[in-house]
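Mods, move this if it's the wrong board.
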Amino acid sequence: MHLRIKVKPNSHENKLLRLPDGSLQVSVRAQPVEGKANAEVILFLSKLLGLPKSGISIEAGEGSKFKKVWIDHPEPEVLALIAEKTNAGPS
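Not the wrong board. Structure tokens:
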């Protein structure tokens, strides 16, 4: 499934938030240099959702704060995991 997210690098903690407009924001500790924040987004989503890193990739927006992420897992299950983990504490 494709997921559109906003990434906030240089955060105090890694976390997933649902914003007031319903969109998703992934905050990561990594800096937005040399792909570090993108790699941290993939690792964080993998750990948070309990899915393998190899099944998560950034398909668009590598240099932008708005990204299109591919998660190789059934959509209903991913959406349920996100709903369960949204606004959860640090990883």
